[in-house]
Amino acid sequence: MSVNQAGASISLVGGGLVGSLLATGLARRGFEVELFERRSDPRTRAVYGGRSINLALSVRGVHALRQLGLYQRILSGAIPMRGRMMHAVDGALTFQPYGVEDWQCIYSISRGDLNRVLLTAAEETGRVRVRFEQKLVAAQAMGPGLELEFHQETEDKTSRIYRRRVIGTDGSASVLRSAVVKANRGRCSEEPLDYGYKELAIAPNDGASGDARFKMEKHALHIWPRGNFMLIALPNFDGSFTLTLFLPHEGPVSLDKLRTPAEVREFFTKYFPDTLPLIEDLEGTFFGNPTGHMVTVKTNPWNWDSRALLLGDAAHAIVPFFGQGMNCGFEDCSELFSRMDAMLHSLTTGLANTDADAAWCSLFNAVSEIRWRNSDAIADMAVENFVEMRDRVGDRQFLNEKALEKRLQLRYPREYISKYSLVSFSRVPYTIAVEAGAAQEKFLKSVCVAGADPAQLDIEAMHGRIRDEIAPILIPFLPEGLKNGYAEVGGHS
Ligand SMILES: Cc1cc2nc3c(=O)[nH]c(=O)nc-3n(C[C@H](O)[C@H](O)[C@H](O)COP(=O)(O)OP(=O)(O)OC[C@H]3O[C@@H](n4cnc5c(N)ncnc54)[C@H](O)[C@@H]3O)c2cc1C
Questions:
Q1: When comparing pLDDT for 31 and 449, which is higher?
Q2: I want to staple 261 with a disulfide (CB 3.0 to 4.6 A). Which of 211, 248, 251, 283 is the partner?
C-alpha cells in the first residue's frame, strides 16, 4: 500500500442523503471524489423498506439544493404541507397552519427518490466515483492521513487503503466518529430515546387520479396526538401516506404491550379509530416492519486535524420531531462550501504539502466550531418539540398562544418571528432560534393569561416589549432591506 500524494481528491464514507449531496458540491469545486457506501446501489435494489420512507424538507435543505441547482429536480416530486392536521379521538379535525405567508410550507419527499437523484447528480459531475458495498470497519492515523479498512460483505473480503482527506457521512452509528472522538479525546454523547417507531401505510384510492387519490388532506402533516405517544402521517406523491407510530418501548401503553395482532387492533380501535378503514393490512405491516430506534448524538470537535471531518448524522443525530436532521446535515454542507469558496486556492495549491494540510485543518476547525453549537441547539429543540407534538397541540393554552403569535408575526414581521418559523423558514442560526424561542415563550405566557381571548388582546400595546425583549435577538441575523427576516428564501414554489 502506498501513501497517495495525488492531487485534489477527497474520500467520503457514507452515500446517504448528506454524503451524496456533499459529493456533488465538492465535485463542482473541482475535487475528485471517491464515495464509499456500505449498501448496494439504491437505484438498482430496494434498500429503504420500513425506514422513514418520507421526510420533511424545509428552507435550510431547500437552500442547499438550490445552491447546487438541484432544487427543481427534487421539488418536482415533493408535496407541500401547509400545516398540521390534528385528529382527535372522535375523528374531529383541526388545521393549524405552519406559517403566515403562502410560501411557508414544508415539503414531503421520498427518502429513496431523494437519495437516488442525489447519487445520480453526483455521478453526472464526472468527478464522483461511488463504490457500493464497502463498509468502513476501522480508521487509524497513518502519516498525515488515515488508513481505512473496508469490508466487502458480499465477498467477505477486507481491504485497506490510505487516504489523506476523509469526510465521514456514515450516519448516526458512524465508524469514523469513533476514530475521531478517540483521537481527539473529544466529547461524544449518545442518548437513546426510550421510544421506538413503527411505519404503516395508507394506500391511494383505487382507480382515482389527481388529488382524488389521497384518502386524507394532501397538503398537511397529519398528527394524532395522544399525550405521551402519537401517530403522524406524511403524504407521498403516488397518493399514499406513510404513517409513523411513536410509542414508548415499555410501560402501560407501549410497544411492549403490542405483541399480538389482536392487541394491535384493539390499540388502534381505542386510540386511532379513524385510521382503521384507511390503513392497509394493519397487523401484517405492524409486525412485518422493523421497530425503529432514535438517538441524540452530540459530538465536539467534528474533525481530526486536517485528515477527517464528520458531517450530517455522523456528527449530530437528532430525534425527528422538528423534521430537521437532514435539513441540518444539508446546512452543514452549505457551511463547508461557503468557507471553502473563501479559501479554495490554499486548499488546492500543492494539496499534499503541509501548507495545504494547515489550510484544511483551519477549514475543518472552523466548520466544527460553528456547527457543533448549532446542531446541539436543534438536537435539544427536537426533543422539546416531541412534547409539543404529542401533547400540547391539543391544549387550549397552547392554541391561544399560537393564535396570538400568528397575529404578532403578521403585525411585526421583522421583530416577531416564531421559533418554528425561525427553524423551518429561515436560515437564522439554530442557537438564535433557541434564544428567541425562550424570550417568546416568557412573553406569551405573561400576556396570554387564562381566560384571555387571543383575538381581542391589544397587540399595539405589546410593541414596546417586543421591540425591547425579542427583536434585539433577531435583528442582527436578518437580511437588511426586506420586509421580514426570511423573504430571501421565500417564494420558492
Ligand atoms: C423516523 C425518522 C424520520 C425523520 N424525518 C426527518 C424529516 O422529516 N426531516 C429531516 O430533515 N430529517 C428527518 N430525519 C433525519 C434524517 O433521516 C437524517 O438526518 C438524515 O438521513 C441524515 O443523513 P446522513 O446522510 O447524515 O445519514 P444517513 O441518511 O443515515 O446515511 C448514512 C449513509 O452511510 C452509510 N453507512 C453507514 N455506515 C457505514 C459504514 N460503516 N461504511 C460505509 N457506509 C456506511 C449508510 O448505508 C447510509 O447510506 C428522520 C429520521 C428518522 C429516523
A1: 31
A2: 283
Least confident of 112-121, 151-160, 221-230, 392-401: 392-401
What is the Å distance from ligand 1's center to 401 Cα?
34
Which of 345, 364, 388 is the C-terminal boundary of a domain? Answer: 388
Predicted local distance difference test score (pLDDT) of residue 398:
86
Q: What is the spatial distance between Cα 130 and Cα 41, in angstroms, rounded to a whole number?
A: 9
Atom of ligand 1 nearest to the CA of 172: 30
Pocket, ligand 1, Cβ cutoff 6 A: 13-19, 36-39, 52, 55-56, 135-136, 169-171, 175, 197, 244, 292, 312-314, 320, 323-327, 329
248: closest CA among 197, 318, 283? 197
Q: Given the CA of residue 314, which atom of ligand 1 is nearest to it?
A: 26
In this structure, the residue with its CA closest to atom 38 of ligand 1 is 170
Does pLDDT of 12 surpass 90?
Answer: yes
pLDDT tens track for 323-351: 999 999 999 999 999 999 999 888 876 55
Q: Which of 470, 488, 471 is nearest to 479 (CA)?
A: 488
CA distance 475 to 455: 27
Domain match, 238 and 383 both: no
Q: Are residues 379 and 325 in the same domain?
A: yes
Entry pTM: 0.94
Is the domain of 57 the same as that of 130?
yes
Q: Is the pLDDT of residue 5 over 90?
A: no
In this prediction, residue 483 carries a pLDDT of: 56
Pocket probe mutation, ligand 1, options 105, 170, 311, max atoms within 8 Å of Cβ: 170
Nearest atom within ligand 1 for CA of residue 317: 19
Best of 20, 43, 52, 297 to mutate for ligand 1, by most ligand atoms within 8 A of CB? 52
- Pair 144, 206 in one domain: no
Mean pLDDT for the stretch of residues 46-68: 83
Q: Phi/psi of residue 311, each to 5°?
A: -140, 160
Which atom of ligand 1 lies nearest, measured to the CA of 234?
Answer: 8
Question: Among candidates 213, 129, 228, 137, which has minimal Cα distance to 175?
Answer: 137
Structural domain range at position 308: 9-78+110-188+297-388
Residue that is last in its domain, among 293, 316, 348 = 293
Tell me how far the alpha carbon of residue 123 lies from the centroid of ligand 1, in angstroms: 20
Mean pLDDT, the chain, integer: 92
Q: Are 55 and 326 in contact (CB under 8 A)?
A: yes
What pLDDT does residue 81 have? 98
Q: How far apart are CA 144 and CA 356, in angstroms?
A: 11
Q: How far does residue 325's CA lie from ligand 1's centre (Å)?
A: 8
Using alpha carbons only, give the angle 248, 390, 277 rounded to the nearest 5 degrees: 85
